[in-house]
Amino acid sequence: MASGEATVFLNGELLPREQARISVEDRAFLFGDGVYEVTPAYGGRFFRLDRHLERLRKGLSALEIDYDPAHVPDIHERLLRANGLESAPAAVVYFQVTRGVAPRTHHFPPEPVPPTLYGYAKEYVRPERERWDAGWEAVTVQDQRWSRADLKTVCLLPNVLAQEAARKAGVADAILVRDGLALEGAHNNLFAVFGDRVATHPASNQILHGITREFVLELVREEGIPVEERPIPLEELQGASELFFTGTTTEIRPTVKVDGRPVGDSGVGPVTRALYQAFLEGVEG
To answer: Which residues belong to the active site?
Structure first.
């Protein structure tokens, strides 16, 4: 078992992972009816947990799941301690809330049921700098998600299919394309550099409003780099000088090829390098 994964949280209890049991009538199992968050911790300090909680509240409200996440920070702390990760250089906590256990109906349970709460913590191992310096590759995939990609729900089958397409192609990431626009990755946000400007899709219902995305936008502005939050046509993306993905478990990941074609000069560009250094200083400082 991987480091930091031995003890999980389930409905108020900390228990060994192998002892955790969830009913076959849980609505996440039957319908994907739930939301989740993944929050990073650096040296035992959670990074922007308040923003993750705000997004969790938004998802709970949109899905009309009756749960107050006021105790989630305490659950996160307990998971870090229980798994010996309170001093780890980097770790993540996964936390999921489903509508709960009820007989299968397409509408909500007619009588309120307790939500199912599940969480775990694990160590995050950052790629070696030599590997990062080489960059990664991506493929484009048609976006098959529903119209509320801004909600972080557990119904991730289109994302899974996109990431599987990337795996079969032997690359790290999938770029989701809809109506000729490059939106984001299968599990991360997408940024492009055009000359002296950085661009990323606006925070609409078409993409997840990434917490790391938000932080990187702040870094871009602090670095004095012009930035545009706008739709990026796939045709234009093919002329980008740099591309990178952002996310909790992606941090900032440079992309040097898309669909086998080089991005810019096929190397990690100066803007991506500067932002990555600023990111590391921001989360570890």
So the answer is: 152
